Amino acid sequence: MGTYEHLRINANDLAEALESHMDEASWLVDLESGEVILARPGETIDEEDEEPWEDSDRFFLICPIDSNEGFKIMEDFVDELPEGEGCRALDRALRLPKPFRSFKDTLFDFLDLREQWFKFHHARMLEHAQRWLDDHLPGAKLSF
After folding, report:
1. CB of 123 within 8 A of CB of 11?
2. What is the DSSP string of 89-107?
3. Among the four 95, 106, 122, 133, which has the fewest Cβ within 10 Å?
4. Are 14 and 132 in contact (CB under 8 A)?
């Protein structure tokens, strides 16, 4: 594996890609520009491309984080909250059959916690983005 010091990857775009679980499309990093791109199987990225992205060395596939890791982020958020009604409600939501949906729905009942959640979640996803870069594209930097 080479080094990728020339690449600047948009931190928010990479964080979004790492959390996106789509069956019909994939997220890629363009190894020439650093752009994060959403592409469908068999698709060419631009008019100059003669082959689909899967057959090109120009693109690096971004695999999303495991849903267990997404669940852990929610658990960590709840663990850091002070005792109270909101903390208990979010903890209960994580134990329901559809914890991701239940957690998000419960946040609408606690708007102050909802804002805290977005900040916490964003910070955690940026940490994941940095680790992903370090593991897959050494030398590349996040841009903000």
Report:
1. no
2. HHHHHTTSSSHHHHHHHHH
3. 95
4. yes
State pLDDT tens for residues 54-71.
767 888 999 999 999 999
| Angle of the 85-93 helix axis to the 99-107 helix axis, nearest 10 | 160
Torsion of CA 41, 46, 49, 51, to 10 degrees: 10
pTM of full prediction above 0.70: yes
Can you spell out the DSSP letters for 30-46? ETTT--EEEE-TT--SS
Structure tokens at 144: 């903000």
On whether the CB atoms of residues 71 and 100 are closer than 8 A, the answer is yes
Place of tokens 């002070």: 82
In angstroms, rounded to a whole number, what is the distance separating the alpha carbons of residues 75 and 99?
11
